[in-house]
Design brief:
The chain contains 7 helices and 7 strands. Helix 1 runs parallel beside helix 2. It is of the alpha/beta class and 253 residues long. It starts with 7 loop residues before the first strand and ends in a 7-residue tail after the last strand. A 7-stranded parallel beta sheet has the order 3-2-1-4-5-6-7, with helices on both faces. It has a single domain, classed as 3-Layer(aba) Sandwich (Rossmann fold), CATH 3.40.50. It is globular. The structure holds nicotinamide-adenine-dinucleotide (NAD). The site of nicotinamide-adenine-dinucleotide has 27 residues, from helix 1. This is NAD(P)-dependent dehydrogenase, short-chain alcohol dehydrogenase family.
């Protein structure tokens, strides 16, 4: 029996990287999935799930839009009868822009997707999960939200906000049976970081990637998916309100 056997699950940012790896792993473990992304490529994720014998439906939606979030959560509940877990994973980096050139619009768009998106997922998932007295919410933050580094300012601020949101929400969910946690990826090879890897390949410096962490390599999406699976599943039944780095030890050094 799979670790998410029969569970109704939503994953956002499911067209690529961590969200795609999680979609494949969760459904392999028996989840019935609503795979959400604003990119049409989410249909390829769902095709891959179906080829592997899993259950999933693709929804093209904006994870930072209140109407869209309400609609895809309602869809999961009407299709599968309940909502056991949601992984608010969609995010954008916004790149490295000097402060003097950053605009309010640039900040607002990053905060809208990276921070308000998880808030909306929590807001609309909570009532269903509280009614069930059961549920697990996972949010993707980042090591950029834990320590200073070379990330963009609004990105790092949005991810620090996600960690704070998760911690405060754990208390708001006191006594409901609903858990919430964050994962904090280090450098992971995904669509988001492709420019970094492409540049390094051009310069022949790919061996230098990931050298800042004790494992001396970048992470792969399935290594994040594994942490998300643990947090979404009953194996993490006493794990709540925490932010877990999955970073090869970067934040330990
Ligand atoms: P990715 O670009 O491969 O995947 C992100 C997915 O989110 C894409 O499919 C994109 O279309 C989708 N998305 C973006 N905005 C959206 C929106 N408004 N609505 C719906 N979908 C949207 O990148 P990834 O690395 O897999 O990113 C997943 C999460 O991991 C993000 O929150 C990111 O900030 C976080 N993260 C990644 C790294 C890394 O090194 N890759 C490090 C730290 C944190």
């Amino acid at each position: 029996m799979g670790r998410l056997e029969g569970k109704s699950v939503i994953i956002t940012g499911a067209a690529s990287g961590i969200g795609r790896a999680a979609s494949l792993l969760f459904t392999k473990e028996g989840a019935k999935l609503i795979a959400v992304d604003r990119s049409e490529a989410v249909k390829e994720t769902v095709d891959q799930v179906h080829k592997a014998g899993g259950i999933a439906e693709a929804v093209i939606a904006d994870a930072g839009s209140e109407n869209d979030v309400r609609a895809f959560i309602d869809k999961a509940v009407s299709k599968y009868g309940r909502l056991d877990a949601i992984w608010a994973n969609a995010g954008i980096s916004g790149g490295l822009v000097p402060i003097a050139e950053q605009t309010v619009e640039h900040w607002q768009e990053i905060l809208r997707i990276n921070l308000i998106g998880p808030f909306l997922a929590i807001k609309y998932a909570m009532p269903h999960m509280i009614k069930q007295q059961y549920g697990s919410i996972v949010c993707t933050a980042s090591v950029a939200g834990l320590k200073s580094g070379a990330s963009g300012h609004p990105y790092a601020a949005s991810k620090a906000g996600v960690i704070s949101l998760v911690q405060t929400t754990a208390y708001s969910l006191s006594g409901t049976g609903v858990r919430i946690n964050a994962v904090c990826p280090g450098l992971i090879e995904t669509g988001m970081t492709k420019p970094v890897f492409d540049r390094a390949k051009e310069r022949g410096t790919q061996d230098k990637i990931g050298q800042l962490n004790p494992l001396k390599r970048a992470g792969q999406p399935h290594e994040l998916a594994a942490m998300g699976l643990f947090l979404a599943s009953d194996e993490a039944s006493y794990v709540n309100g925490q932010a877990f780095p999955v970073d090869g030890g970067l934040t330990a050094s």
